[in-house]
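S2.1 Query sequence (Omega-amidase nit2)
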Amino acid sequence: MQSRIFKVGLCQEAAQNGADIIVLPEMFVAPYTRKHMLDYREPLLPDFKTNEKCETAKMLSGLAKSLNKYIIGGSFPQEIEGEERVYNTSLCFNREGDIVAEHRKLHLFDINIPGGVTFYESEYVKPGPPQYSIFETEYCKIGLGICYDIRFPEYALQLVNQGAEMICYPANFALKTGELHFDTLKRARAIDNQVFLMSCGSAINSEDKEVFQSWGHSSVMSPWGKTLCEAAFEETIIYADIDLKEVTEIRQQIMVLNHRRKDLYTLESKI
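Output structure tokens follow.
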């Protein structure tokens, strides 16, 4: 790839060590800035497997097929014809290298914290159309969001209503918000939906201190809210063995999903 960030060798190493589902971070092909995301944008075309313009999709598809693994491909800046904005798009591939899910970030990171962080993702990213991103594997159904989507429990619950037993959030949390909120949000979404939750955050960009710096801290949470594995800021691979019987057990022991008071409140889908 043209990007200096992504390393195919890390996916190969994970596969050699027995990983069946490999997850990459949000915007893994480019630094998280307006300039870089617009510079690195690329289309997603039906013939992506043979189209050189679809560099990220083509590469991930070939990698998933050659490794015979599922790959949740973080996200990349997807070109929108006629617009100076991009979609923040995550592609998931099965073992044959076929796309089984396309998720375009739904909630955009526009914040203004006095003395802290000012960031307006909506200036150069277009929110994805209404969608519930979920795909099926031989293990279970897996739901998908991107970074800021994790702050919206309504979306995660809709994924669970459609059968998700795992939810994955490729991410790129800012240092300040990551330190305060990322771990809490991951644990909360795992506990309140009684699912395994995977999050993959970008490492610190040691090559360019001027670009957006991520909190990192990739992790896997159990349905009990237990941290099964966690990284820090560095570029690394983390592994977790997941026993899906835990999802069934906790849902039988603490029947949160059955105890909602539909006479008081309901969550209604618009799609």
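The mean pLDDT is 93. Residues 175-193 form the longest helix (19 residues).
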